[in-house]
Specification:
The structure holds two protein chains of two kinds.
Chain A lengths: L2 H18 L3 H29 L2 E2 L4 E2 L1 H30 L5 H23 L3 H19 L5 H33 L11 H6 L6 H19 L7 H8 L2 H29 L10 H21 L5 H22 L2 H32 L10 H4 L1 H14 L6 H16 L4 H23 L15 H15 L3 H15 L5
Antiparallel strand pairs in A: 1-2
Helix pairs in contact in A: 1-2, 1-4, 2-3, 2-4, 3-4, 3-10, 3-13, 3-18, 3-19, 4-5, 4-10, 5-6, 5-10, 6-8, 6-9, 8-10, 8-11, 9-10, 9-12, 10-12, 10-13, 11-12, 11-17, 12-13, 13-15, 13-16, 13-18, 13-19, 15-17, 15-18, 16-18
Chain B lengths: L8 H22 L3 H26 L3 H28 L11 H23 L9 H18 L3 H23 L4 H29 L16
Helix pairs in contact in B: 1-2, 1-5, 2-3, 2-6, 3-6, 3-7, 4-5, 5-6, 6-7
The chains are: A mainly alpha, B mainly alpha.
Chain lengths: ~500, ~230
């Protein structure tokens, strides 16, 4: 069997097995095992692509751009499953979930991983849409896992808003297919990304321009771009924390991946500048991205719930990446690719500590979480270091990528560096005004340490630190190859 | 551009049915009784299935017959049956879902149709006569579905709105491009099926948490100061 088949079959088999396995504690271990096997398969796939070049088939298309996202997805899936075992065991102990719901949780977790990996590896834009809609379906029952009134509300909002949003993307896909069917004779090939990319220059620009608007609005809802972001803080704050970690770390990335793939086709179709500006797609993405970046930074200041706080931080960073991909050019693209990686690693690490912090304090209310470092140094320092990393301080990887993005902006749109720098400052202030009292200060009465597995946290933060100090040569080449694919030129 | 009367009979039938689908969408928007809303939705599904069959006949594409069968089973029978069953269990089948300002809503829907025709005007010249109006109509269906979604309060009628929005997408696919590749159509149908089942589960969760299906009572998560 093909290696891509294995990458996809493992989570499906895992989801089925976990749905049938009645023992929840055993399920948590099996979940780790499945994720670890998935990671091994992904690394195998990455090595295959690294050695033999792009895999282009009827069904799947894997090049340097998506294969690193596949590995990242599997890695975060594995570490999150390790984190989730003690976390969900604690939730079970305090009767927030029942063993039956825990079973649903594990099965949906792997189901979600399957949709992510399918979205990344497929060559068919229709299947990409199906996988992203499937991601909503797989996670919606997880958002309402605790069955509180708030979690039901969050899940309903998530379901309806993402469903309606992504419906626009399907309309865009139909329009793209409409444009392609006039050029590509075989209708079965007309939605294949590789074929569309090849024929991009012949596609009718009027139709493609319209299609892109629909696709961006649709997938932009999933990225959490302002003003389509309303579902995101709710879904992140009310669902179980491992879910928030993978939603922020993976789903948003994959949705952005979808937009970038589409943009590559649209750029090809609009290249001669008639009747649309050849940079139409880039301009729209820059506008949406910058708006999200600034607005989310401002919203950080008024948050009272710790998970809502960090979900707004996710919107902010997704905005920055969308802006960077819109900017185009090798430097911005390289920076955006690096930022996708470091944001995903850092943000999932933060959500892990946030989950433990709210278990220690017994609440998600920021003003009732106090004295974390004294109560449990792992959690307190983890949260502090994670936040320092996400705010873009050296020597962490987020600093490197944000620096690259600022340099790229300075080169092509100098006056836009001002709002970017301001946005970074606003976001920094927004995070740290809440963070300081939470990690320092005295222990509230009766607050005790809880069972924590520090391994995933350490791994993520070490990787981010490593990427900040020096990007290893093979990874740099990899990003460079992806940069060439997306922007047309190498950086290094 | 051919006028309506000069078209072959089959194409006239398709256009008339497309207009009827749009009418059914307006009917959905104006109907406040839960059971009638679901029934109109079923009729809309049936109309779509008939249109798909006619297009399959006209173009000779056999895979469209499968799409037609799928639509008939899923949109005209299964989803309405599921919704009626759930509504009966929840005891809201005969309820009314008050529409916010019906007059203005319908006027808005009318302007949406004009807006959609305007949006797709530049791309209509690329379409064949059979599908010229279809892209505008399908976009209008999507937009009216969204309008219905925001003017309804009950979870069950919101789901009907969501599904009729999905109908608009399906209509776009069959009329503008004579269907999508089979794998995509099957996948989309599968997603719709799963969504319908999950919505069904959700009704009970919502009822258990707020003792009603009026989702405007779900209003605790907001970014405003309490």
């Amino acid at each position: 069997m093909n290696v891509i088949d294995w990458v996809l079959i493992i989570p499906v088999a895992g989801a089925l097995g976990l749905a049938l396995l009645p023992n929840a504690r055993l399920g948590a271990w099996l979940n780790i095992l499945v994720s670890a096997t998935g990671l091994a398969a992904s690394i195998w796939l990455a090595l295959t692509v690294l050695n033999n070049g792009t895999i282009a088939g009827e069904l799947f298309y894997v090049d340097a751009f998506n294969v690193y996202l596949v590995v990242l997805t599997s890695l975060v899936s594995m570490t999150t499953s390790i984190f989730s075992r003690p976390y969900m065991a604690h939730e079970l102990e305090i009767h927030k979930v029942t063993p039956l719901r825990l079973r649903l949780y594990h099965a949906s977790f792997q189901g979600f991983m399957f949709t992510m990996l399918l979205a990344l590896t497929t060559n068919n834009l229709g299947v990409l849409w199906i996988a992203l809609e499937g991601a909503t379906l797989a996670t919606v029952l997880l958002v309402s896992l605790y069955r509180t009134r708030e979690s039901i509300e969050a899940a309903w909002k998530y379901f309806i808003l993402c469903g309606v949003g992504i419906a626009q993307a399907l309309f865009g896909t139909v329009l793209l297919y409409f444009a392609a069917s006039r050029v590509v004779p075989d209708p079965d090939q007309a939605l294949q990304w590789s074929v569309l990319y090849q024929h991009a220059g012949q596609l009718e620009p009027v139709i493609v321009g319209l299609a892109f608007v629909f696709l961006l609005v649709g997938y932009g809802t999933k990225i959490g771009l302002v003003p389509l972001h309303n579902w995101l803080p709710d879904a992140h704050s009310e669902g179980p924390t491992p879910m928030s970690a993978v939603l922020s770390g993976l789903l948003l990335n994959v949705a952005l991946y979808a937009v970038v793939r589409v943009k590559m086709i649209v750029d090809g179709a609009l290249i001669d500048g008639n009747p649309h500006n050849p940079q139409l797609a880039g301009f729209i993405m820059m506008a949406f991205g910058l708006l999200s970046f600034i607005i989310a930074g401002l919203f950080l200041h008024r948050q009272r719930d710790i998970k809502r706080l960090f979900s707004y931080s996710s919107i902010e960073h997704m905005g920055l990446m969308t802006f960077a991909f819109g900017l185009g050019g090798p430097l911005a693209t390289f920076g955006a690719l690096l930022h996708m990686t470091v944001h995903s690693l850092t943000k999932s690490a933060i959500f892990m500590t946030v989950g433990h912090a709210s278990q220690i304090a017994g609440t998600q209310q920021i003003d009732r979480i106090r004295g974390l470092i004294l109560t449990q140094p792992t959690v307190g320092w983890g949260l502090l270091i994670g936040s320092i990393a996400i705010a873009g301080f050296p020597p962490f990887g987020v600093f490197t990528s944000e620096f690259l993005l600022l340099t790229a902006t300075m080169k092509s749109w100098p006056w836009l560096t001002m709002p970017l720098l301001m946005g970074l400052a606003i976001a920094f202030a927004g995070l740290f005004r809440h963070l300081h009292p939470m990690v320092f200060g005295q222990i509230p009465e009766g607050q005790r340490a809880i069972a924590v597995n520090p391994f995933p946290l350490l791994l993520h933060l070490t990787l981010v630190l490593w990427l900040g100090l020096s990007v290893p040569a093979f990874l740099a080449n990899w990003f460079d190859e992806a940069t060439r694919l997306i922007s047309g030129a190498n950086l290094l | 551009m051919d006028t309506y009367a000069e078209l072959p009979l089959l194409q006239q039938a398709i256009q008339t049915l497309a207009a009827l689908v749009l009418v059914s969408s307006f009917a959905l928007l104006a109907q406040s009784r839960v059971i009638a809303t679901i029934q109109i939705f079923a009729w809309q599904g049936l109309l779509l299935a008939v249109i798909t069959t006619l297009i399959a006949w006209e173009t000779g594409l056999t895979h469209l017959y499968i799409s037609a069968a799928l639509t008939l089973v899923l949109k005209a029978f299964f989803v309405p049956w599921l919704l009626i069953r759930q509504a009966r269990k929840l005891g809201i089948l005969r309820d009314f879902d008050a529409i916010i300002r019906p007059g203005i809503t319908l006027m808005a829907a009318g302007s949406l149709v004009i807006f959609c025709y305007n949006v797709v005007l530049p791309i209509q010249r690329f379409a064949q006569s059979i599908t010229r109006d279809a892209i505008a109509v399908s976009l209008a269906l999507v937009m009216i579905g969204m309008l219905m979604l925001i003017t309804r309060r009950k979870a069950i009628t919101q789901v009907v709105a969501f599904m009729s929005l999905e109908n608009g997408l399906f209509f776009a696919a069959i009329s503008a491009t004579q269907g999508m590749p089979m794998v995509v159509e099957l996948g989309v149908a599968f997603d719709v099926l799963i969504a319908a089942v999950i919505f069904g589960i959700f009704f009970f969760h919502i009822r258990d948490s707020i003792e009603s299906l009026d989702v405007d009572q779900l209003n605790r998560l907001a970014e405003t100061d309490e």
